[in-house]
Design a protein that fits this description.
single chain, mainly alpha, 20 helices, 70% helix
Length: 646
């Protein structure tokens, strides 16, 4: 076996779908235009999801399915699209979704500090952080994608390659995502425009006169869809963290009289929420910090190996040895080095960024480390489970401590420093998935990297406007868009700088994390559950349980191909549900901003009683679960030509 460089190596190389010596249309004008269009739509959808659920998903597979459907339709008027052009479309589209994830997990936190979200600052920071994410991933591509091909499956990248290979002739996959989109949009409209159904079920109950539990769930298509995509294992860890917080720590603190003064005398549910906001989020932060540092320590050999290979490639380039196969051509290492240096300088000199020299140094160094961590972790758990928020917490804590030592008192400076890292890590994870897809298909890495940079440029222009829109429509920190990560980042930055950080609670969370590590339990999803509202963790878990039930049902047939089809169909349907709710969420937000309708939470209420709408909501959840299961099983049972499935 020969490697992609044509040199003898282990059996890590694959035979790509498009051979290295084949010339095929790839980075074309029509692919770029279509990629830019889908980029904006799906980044808005992912922004809504992240602000609502504290989690985002990879846009690669839904983008690939939609792209194939559009090219299939355009072929009727003579506009053809190759498999490599479809790959460019999904690469550009997922760039916007990943960049948005970094923004909403960090930079959106300025809204919690009482400052307005500046569109220009958001655009600049997003652009610089996104560029670092792509550039720092380039020297690691050969090691992570090629050399570690057998060890790192990159689940979403591999699945996306399968979808693209199976769907060159268009077909049923587009209908699956379309139907899911319609169901998610109609469901959300019934709940949030007309008030026909209630999606939130919550309450509290007492075990003794002084101790109780607060539980609930916001059972929407997006949250259930997220749970279905991430699966039962990760969903169970998230719920486990939530139960520790809401059924153990919060009752103990309420019993001990640690209810914040402004919540004393309130209902049990109000007291529980106040304790969560004032104390429990610090516990989650402590767990996230330990989890992030542990990830870095576990990655040290990978980071060193990637640096070694990158240095070798840089030396080869200086010596003029750049005669590589098409499928092995990255952007030159000189561009990586010079580009990173320019980004570092711009972080210092652009006034809107505000981080200064020390902040820029922290941001660039942390970005390099966490790009390596992110790129490696998504190879195992996928982009949808990429713990970017844990890496951001660690960065913000370190930045806050260091910057405070030189007299910095503005928490926004700390948030911006952490935002560069969050965006870089999120983009790097997505970039590595896309490069895995390209590696399996036989794409040109350099052209994919250019497509990523173009997609990031467009996404950065829209990122600030999208966050401002959602803030005006719903309010960040509201029940609809709690933006849990952004609130946590702002809390850490402000409390460390002004000396009010609750280090005792942070230590409790860190201790939890150490114990979980010793038990070989993934720390970061558990920590996410600890600082998410319980109303978000429960529907995510329900989606994960549904995935387990459907998978077990299909596996009983003993047909491995059917199981694979079920997994892919379920992911596509769930992605459609998420996009449908998100786009309808934008419509509802526009209605609120324009002041149309009643002016209340429900713009056009139909007059159904709360009790009746609650029961209709319960029935709607049952119908939603049935729809997901039936669609997935139907796809699994389809034994027709696989080229017509997607």
């Amino acid at each position: 076996m020969v490697s992609e460089r044509g040199k003898s190596t282990e059996t890590t190389a694959v035979d790509p779908y498009v051979a290295a010596d084949t010339s095929m249309a790839e980075l074309t004008v029509k692919a770029v235009l279509l990629g830019l269009l889908l980029n904006v739509v799906l980044m808005a959808a992912n922004a809504y999801l992240g602000l609502r659920a504290g989690l985002t998903i990879s846009a690669s597979i839904p983008a690939a399915v939609i792209s194939m459907g559009l090219f299939y339709s355009l072929s009727r008027i003579g506009i053809q699209g190759t498999i490599l052009e479809n790959n460019i479309v999904q690469t550009m589209t997922s760039a916007g979704s990943s960049l948005t994830a970094g923004v909403i997990f960090s930079l959106a936190g300025v809204a919690f500090l009482g400052e307005s979200i500046d569109v220009v600052t958001t655009a600049v920071v997003s652009l610089l952080g996104g560029i670092l994410g792509v550039l720092f991933m380039i020297p690691m591509r050969r090691y992570l994608i090629v050399e570690q091909h057998q060890e790192l499956p990159y689940p979403e990248g591999t699945a996306c390659a399968d979808v693209l290979q199976a769907g060159e002739h268009g077909g049923r996959g587009v209908r699956f995502v379309s139907v899911g989109f319609v169901v998610g949009a109609v469901y959300t409209a019934l709940a949030n425009i007309w008030g026909v159904i209630q999606t939130t079920i919550q309450g509290a109950f007492s075990v003794t006169n002084t101790r109780g539990f607060a539980l609930g769930g916001d059972f929407t298509p997006a949250l259930i869809g997220v749970g279905y995509i991430i699966g039962p294992r990760i969903a169970a860890y998230i719920l486990g963290g939530g139960l520790v917080s809401w059924m153990m720590l919060i009752p103990l603190l309420v019993t001990g009289g640690m209810v914040p003064p402004d919540a004393v005398g309130g209902t049990l549910f109000e007291q529980a929420n106040a304790v969560w906001s004032s104390y429990i989020r610090y516990v989650g932060a402590g767990a996230m910090i330990v989890g992030g540092l542990y990830a870095i320590a576990s990655m040290r050999s990978t980071i060193f190996d990637a640096i070694r290979l990158a240095s070798a490639e840089f030396s080869e380039g200086l010596n003029g040895n750049t005669d590589y196969k098409r499928t092995a051509r990255d952007l030159p290492m000189a561009i990586v080095v010079v580009g990173a240096a320019i980004v570092a300088i711009l972080l210092v000199v652009i006034p809107q960024v505000r981080v200064g020299l020390l902040g820029a140094v922290i941001a660039v160094l942390a970005a390099f480390l966490f790009v390596a961590v992110s790129s490696y972790l998504v190879g195992i758990v996928g982009s949808s489970s990429n713990p970017v928020s844990g890496m951001t917490v660690a960065t913000i804590l370190i930045a806050a401590v260091v910057l405070r030592s030189i007299g910095v008192s503005d928490p926004v400076v700390v948030l911006v420093t952490g935002s560069v890292v969050a965006i870089a890590a999120a983009v790097a994870g997505d970039t590595s998935q896309d490069l895995k897809t390209g590696y399996l298909l036989g794409a040109t890495p350099r052209k994919q990297q250019i497509a990523q940079l173009v997609g990031i440029g467009l996404s950065a222009l829209f990122a600030g406007g999208i966050i401002v829109f959602f803030n005006q429509a719903y309010g960040l920190g509201s029940q609809t868009l709690p933006a849990p990560q952004a609130g946590l980042m702002a809390l850490i930055a402000e409390s460390v700088l002004n000396g009010t950080a609750n280090w005792g609670m942070v230590l409790i969370g860190a201790t939890f994390a150490v114990i979980l590590i010793m038990m070989d339990v993934p720390v970061l999803p558990f920590a996410v559950g600890m600082y998410l509202p319980i109303s978000l963790a429960t529907p995510i878990f329900l989606g994960g349980v549904l995935k387990a039930v459907v998978t077990r049902y299909v596996e009983r047939t003993g047909d491995e191909a059917a199981t694979e089809r079920a997994t892919l169909n379920g992911r596509i349907v769930a992605a459609g549900l998420i996009a449908g709710e998100a786009i309808m969420g934008i419509v509802v937000g526009a209605i609120r901003i324009l002041g149309v309708g009643s002016g209340g939470e429900i713009p056009f209420p139909v007059g159904i009683s709360n009790q009746f709408s609650l029961w209709l909501g319960v029935a709607a959840v049952g119908g939603l679960l049935t729809f997901i299961a039936a669609s997935t099983i139907r796809g699994a049972k389809d034994t027709g030509d696989t080229e017509e499935l997607y």
